[in-house]
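Field reference: sequence -> structure
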Amino acid sequence: MFQMDNSKEPQSEIIEKIAGHYKAIIELIGEDPEREGLVKTPERAAKALYYATRGYRQDLESVIHGALFHTDESQLVVVKDVEFYSLCEHHVLPFFGHVSVGYLPGEKIVGLSKIARIVDMFARRLQVQERFTSELADALTDALGARGVIVRAEARHLCMAMRGVQKQDSTTVTLATTGAMKTDASLRAQFFSIL
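Structure field:
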């Protein structure tokens, strides 16, 4: 899992550098970056990109922040329809949708809001949906000591809608499983029936 370390460089300096590149891009596409409507665009775009990629500056331990709790429960836990927004690593265009997560607790459960925060951490990076889904399943398995995890992601990709094939209504569905969720068809069926 890639972790970017910007701790040596202040956020304002990083944003300033990104803004300089945006200004150059505006010029390269034939626009005037000094035109009234565009004067502040490089800085705004830099701040937006920095925010949209904040997952690089997060790690699993700090996101969970001690919200693991001992349990004797062994029933399937499902959190469904967690919205996410990401950027396609091939075109740096948005893809977005919903993730549903199911896990079989080992000895611990996690605060439910932490699942949504973990989704955000992996989504807020340059991504492909297939890796995003697998990263979530693996991270939840490791962090929770879960006996099994299943993750289903469904998303619309603007790189397919705005360019290339220009298919407006297509969605992509990816699925990742670990442990018992990979080997036990009845558990997967239970997850899908809940969805």
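Note: The chain has eight helices and seven strands.
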